[in-house]
Amino acid sequence: MARESVDMEVEARLTQARQLCVRLGVRLSTQRLRTLELVLQARGPVKAYDIAKRFYSHRRASAITIYRALRFWEEIGLVRRIKSLNAFVAALNGEAASGFAFLVCGECGESTEIPLSSPAEVAAAASGLGFEIDRLTLEAGGRCRRCASRIVVVNEVEA
Ligand SMILES: [Zn+2]
Predict the structure, then answer these.
(1) Secondary structure letter of residue 92 according to DSSP
(2) Which residues are close to ligand 1, an ion, with C-beta < 5 A?
(3) Measuring CA to CA, which of 9, 73, 107, 157 is 20 to 30 A from 26?
(4) 34 Cα: distance to centroid of ligand 1 (angstroms)
């Protein structure tokens, strides 16, 4: 994707985030907005440490500031945490998604978010235990299409 269209996409999603905050009646600080901007610009999983490094042009932001902002976006559903990578990624399926899964490539670290098609089974089992689910995340480890095909090619050369 061209640099310009990436910027436009980031800008569009920041506008949506601003509108969501107005709708929810939550305060949107410049720190929160800048943090979301950096998550969106990363276009893949990004660590809080790297966000802190890029936050200002001349110095690093404090880790607490970044974690607070990430938590804020996580709570309203615009950022997801991928625990297995200890990284954060912009949510694809929006704030309304009740269940989603991440496919995390163990070779290149790329993550893909997909909606969970049958979270109902988990929800039923949880409600049987009196547990109320706010969100449901599944992380699947493996290899993305690109890395899987690269491994096949290497094997063919060796054979
Ligand atoms: Zn990969």
Answers:
(1) S
(2) 105, 107-108, 110, 144, 147
(3) 9
(4) 28
* The CATH fold of domain 1-94: Arc Repressor Mutant, subunit A (1.10.10)
CB atoms within 10 A of CB 54: 15
Beta strands 87-90 and 79-82 are antiparallel
Q: Give the CATH class of 97-159.
A: alpha beta
Distances (CA, A) of 30 to 59, 68, 69: 16, 13, 10
Q: Which of 103, 113, 100, 115 is nearest to 147 (CA)?
A: 103
**pLDDT confidence tier of residue 124, bands split at 50, 70 and 90:** confident
If you measure from the C-alpha of residue 149 to the centroid of ligand 1, how many angstroms do you get, rounded to a whole number?
A: 9
Q: Is 136 helix (H, G, I), strand (E, B) or coil?
A: strand
Residue ranges matching CATH 3.30.1490.190 in the chain: 97-159
Tens digit of pLDDT for each residue in 27-76? Answer: 999 999 999 999 999 988 999 999 999 999 888 999 999 999 999 999 88
Ligand 1 centroid distance, CA of 148 (Å): 7
